[in-house]
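Data deposition worksheet. Section B asks for the primary sequence of the deposited chain exactly as it was used as input, without tags or linkers unless they were present during the calculation. Section C holds the resulting structure in token form. Section D is free text for depositor observations; keep each observation to a single sentence. Incomplete worksheets are returned to the depositor.
Section A, Depositor: J.P.
Section B:
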Amino acid sequence: MSVQPYLFDLICLFNISNLRNSGCDNHPASDDIRGEGLLERIATERIVQGFPKTRIYILTNNDVLRRIRYVFDLKDSTVVEIFSMADFSATEEQVAAWLKKEDDEAFLKLADVEFAAFLNGFINFKRGKREGEQPKPEARLNNNMVFQKLRIALNLKAEDILEIFELAEFRLSSHELSAFFRKPGNKNYRECKDQVLRNFLLGLQNQLRPSDKGLDSESV
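Section C:
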């Protein structure tokens, strides 16, 4: 077996890590880089339990929407309804394009404000729509915000979330978990990395669709 591909993966991982550590995650252009998929997804032959674990995988809004739709078995028409519950207009044609893979000509990037609207609607969909004006969707999203909105929508307590992570064979302490839900200015705040959000979604899949455990995410 050649060592060169693995060295190449490590070099790419090092470069992307440096890009993030330099503060580029907070730069307006970083969302465009991630969303357009300009950072290569470098695949290896081993795919484990729903998400590739031996490749560089940049999680996008489209990826998370696709996974949520699959885990909760949502029809395109239901996704449109969820958007409407946040007073946001979306069509089935848009939904279909958001769910396409990046290499499909019909693929459409899901912007932060659009995904925020979906998550706000998902909260109403799962817990009942509150009366009055709906919260305005955020113009910028990060993994912490996505994780928090999903936690609220599913009405999950800390112990529930830790159990979900265990279903993905991902270990996390209650202290580490609480740090994801702190305000950014809090000294105990911790950035939610893609790996954490991926494993949370994988755990949800294993919990709600156990017969599909180990399904390759690329086939969803």
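Section D:
Residues 58-219 form one domain.
The chain has a mean pLDDT of 80.
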